[in-house]
Amino acid sequence: MEYKILNNVISPESIKKLNNDEITLLCDEIRNEIIDVVSKNGGHLASSLGAVELTIALHRVFSSPKDAIIFDVGHQSYAHKLLTGRFEKFSTLRKEGGISGFMRPDESEHDPFVTGHSSNSISAAYGIYKAKSMLDGGTAIAVIGDGAMTGGMAYEALNNAGGRKGNFIVVLNDNKMSISKNVGAMPRAFTKMRNRKGYHKMKFAVSSLLLKLPLVGKPIHNFVFSIKESFKRLVYKNNIFTSLGFNYLGPVNGHDTAAMERLFTIAKSYNKPTLVHVVTTKGKGYSYAESQPKDYHGVSSFDIDKGKGDSDIKTYSDIAGETLCELASENKKVCAITAAMTEGTGLQYFASKYKSRFFDVGIAEQHAVTFAAGLASGGMIPYFAVYSSFLQRGYDQVLHDAAIANVPIKLLVDRAGIVGDDGESHQGLFDVAYLSTIPNVNIYSPCYYGELKKLIRDTAEKDELSVIRYPRGVEKDNFNGDISGDCTVISQKGSKAIVTYGRIFSNAVDAQKDLENTDIIKLNKIYPVSDKIVELLQNYKEIYFFEEGVLSGGIAEHIGCRLLEKGYDGKYSTHTVGNEFVGASTIQSALKKYKLDVESMIEIVGK
To answer: Of the listed 393, 410, 415, 469, which one is catalytic?
Structure first.
């Protein structure tokens, strides 16, 4: 698409001499481009639309890459990509071989850090700032949303950085909640005054003058400014950021570029950490996203004129949510937990029907696991629904707060396996490997909806720490046999065996139709590996293990080790994603690449 200004933006320096009218036009062009590309490729829409003016203001005041700008999660980074030389490639967003939906240092020098998961921007930016202060100069700016501020890591970083010397800056992109409520004409007047550059110049001039006076200068300076701070606290009251040792500027309209530029310029002048509070509208510029920001946070392709349609096709997430509702109606001990992913994990049904037993803890997976352990210790039956890649943050809590005492929490691990276009940071390929290192953990991996429902119901009755992992998307229901016990055998009375579990079991069922002398061993409970399964596999001359996960620590490795201990001397062949990060692509393309699709199974086993 041709644009008057955006086509000519090759770096952040390109926008620094634009006038107000040109800036307004550039904002419109950026929004049009984001909406156009995301409508085709899918992606994170509402958050990026809300951060357009904010991003422009940052790049006009600061000098990337000397000044490092880190967008938390990266959901807000689409405008940043368009302003940093990636306009020509923007149509490849989230496509195989294209640019990432998140910040990637290997993609651009203007992306100083990988930001696929939330709440890490302040830690990373503060580390980069300290490195710059010791090396080549420049500053670092963390742009963090109010949602990401619910993550505990953000507060650990604020606590570490606060009160120290140096020009470190945090920008709070607040599109939902008020951090500090100031009511009345007096606070409004002070906010207006404090946000003027002249006020700060006068403040610094008075301070310098007093400190130059011999003997009495410093005591007078301290007395005057202590009165000022006391009066300010009386009018404003402290907020958490000033309490942690940050200068606080704002709130400022996040769609007024000139106003933000003034505040960012002031923030640059401080020799103390500063937080700039910016208030934005999520989904700004696209009516559907503005009115339904949650629905337009992460989207698949859609019709721009009609907006995102509601799908009647149920997913694994929907089935999990519906089953929990059924359980909750039968058992008052059943409760559900999410870490700011109510709709993503299908818990919107539960949230509306059983409000007192539904807990959204914010982006705080570590807290969620321990909170679940507390609920279970108190007699409840808690199910924590969480994406596989986000549960990684709760590893220590699963181990220390649940597994050691064998507390019977239930983990519904959504988006297990390959997830597609979000790429490396969101692939659910590690949960089996890291959870199977923990004693007392029991892992199940259903291959279709009926099995998922059964496992959720069965685990409610079990006094065990249960993990049920299931993929993104919809089932491929091509098997109606018995799924009871540790494994299911689909037999041709052959000497070869395909061993697998989860989503790709359905691929094995289709592959078996074109294979001879080949049985399928479907693992129902995938960990701990039962002696029965190891004994069964010793009867086969050739074993082919297909696993939608990493090799190290995976079930293929666990079973291979057990077979070796038993003296197995047949052929044992493993086919996994190996030990690597899987980039953005369609799910089917990735399965084919790693030889986990039907055709690859036929080729490998049929040789």
So the answer is: 393
Question: Is 81 a residue of the active site?
Answer: no
Is 123 found in the same domain as 11?
A: yes
- Asked if residue 227 belongs to a domain, the reply is no
Which residue shows structure tokens 């596999």? 537
- With CA atoms as reference, report the closest residue to 467 among 397, 550, 384, 549: 384
Query: pLDDT tens, 417-455?
Result: 999 888 888 999 999 999 999 999 999 999 999 999 999
* pLDDT at site 572: 97
Same domain for 445 and 498?
Answer: no
Of 60, 282, 284, 469, the active-site residue reads 282
CA distance linking residue 521 with residue 555, whole number of Å: 13
Range of the domain at 38: 6-180+239-289
- Among 143, 154, 152, smallest CA distance to 47 is for 143
For 526-570, write each residue's pLDDT tens digit. 999 999 999 999 999 999 999 999 999 999 999 999 999 999 999
Catalytic residue, candidates 365, 547, 548, 557: 365
Tell me: do 339 and 454 sit in the same domain: yes
Average pLDDT of span 105-118: 91
Per residue in 21-68, pLDDT tens? Answer: 999 999 999 999 999 999 999 888 989 999 999 999 999 999 999 999
Q: What is the CATH number of the domain that holds 459?
A: 3.40.50.970
Considering the domain architecture, whether residues 35 and 110 belong to the same structural domain is answered as yes
* Separation of CA 412 from chain center: 17
User: Does residue 337 sit in helix, strand or coil?
Assistant: strand
Catalytic, 282? Answer: yes
- Mark whether 2 is an active-site residue: no
Q: Are residues 43 and 106 in the same domain?
A: yes
10 and 118 belong to one structural domain = yes
